[in-house]
Write a structure and sequence with these properties.
CATH class of the largest domain: Alpha Beta
Mean pLDDT: 95
Shape: elongated
Oligomer: single chain
Low-confidence stretches: 1-8
Number of strands: 19
CATH superfamily of the largest domain: Zn peptidases
Structural class: alpha+beta
Radius of gyration: 23 Å
Helix content: 25-40%
Largest sheet: 6 strands, mixed
Number of helices: 9
Number of domains: 2
Strand order of the largest sheet: 1-2-6-3-7-17
Distance between the termini: 35 Å
CATH topology of the largest domain: Aminopeptidase
Order of helices and strands: HHEEEEEHEHEEEEHEEEHEEHEHEEEH
Length: about 375
Amino acid sequence: MPARRLAHDLTPEAGWARQAAAWTIDQGRAIQSIAAPTFAEGQRAAWVEAAFRSYGLSDVATDAVFNVFGHLHGSAASRPALLITAHTDTIFNADTDLTQRTEGGLLYGPGLGDNSIAVAALLALARELTRRVAPPVDIWFVATSREEGLGDLGGMKAAFERLGAKTGAVLNIEGLALGHVYHGGIAVRRLKVTAAAGGGHSWLHYGRPSAIHALVALCGKLLQLVPPLTPRTTFNIGLIEGGDAVNAIASRAACWLDLRSETSSALAGFEDAIRGIISDDASDGVAFTIDVVGDRPAGNIPVTHPLVQIGIQALAAVGVEAILDTGSTDANVPLAAGCPAITLGVTRGGNAHRTDEFIESAPVAAGLAHLMTAVQLAQRDLAEG
């Protein structure tokens, strides 16, 4: 459902945003051109760190997992801080062709929408806020790592461990989410299921158990499972690998399962059902092992929460009716810890996680305006807390 336009330029931040939009797009394109696969965000982190230092932020540092921190001191340091985040990593390998192209108002490039334009918006906010009167509360800007895939929100987990005790609210930025206010984080579990067998020659040892045959049969049984409709629960077999040669009985095979639910309890029950099938499928000739390779916690705040209302108001100020949503983002981490958090967007676009990913350039000004409005309202709320 697309966001519905209501009016134009109703926010006092509209003038700044119009001036900053082209700069932000240029920054997004520069960031996108730096490869940043999950677990290998170092070069992009160095670029962001240099930008933070050039704006005059305090306590600028990059940690061991390539999170980049910058601190803007507020006038009421005793109050809880505002944490603003955007993740730097992408799903693309280091050798992916990152060539960009422009068609009309669309800008194409792998990772441009998810999440380079959001990192650029984070920089735009930091750059502008350092030029203004000191905010009423401390603001921490964090370009996080390891958000995608098997990164398992590792950057945000490390960042929140460091700053969580000081934080009163989190604004997380996703590039393609303009018009949405994500106020709930769904639970996600990722399992690697490995089958092991003795193997052998496909002719000489025909009839011996095959790890691939056993795994494929297991996957067929798993696909007969019907996850709960309420609370909404899903699963996906996303990766399969294995085998030794075309003429060998496979000694090893593995698959990766992605399990998601609106509640942790429903997800746990569904995972138990999957584990039961796997346990029942084991035999003398084939052994299955299960490794948890991802665990994203769930959490949410109600629509009536002041921070959600801030997100709604900020969108209304630029003439966009908010779509309230849930998903799996860096905001899961603070939400699971009981810290208010929402995820907002910068622009619209499409084909996320594909090499023909694109963003729309025209909405970026509105995206920046509503982000800055949300920042101003959130820090005021924390100061008055």
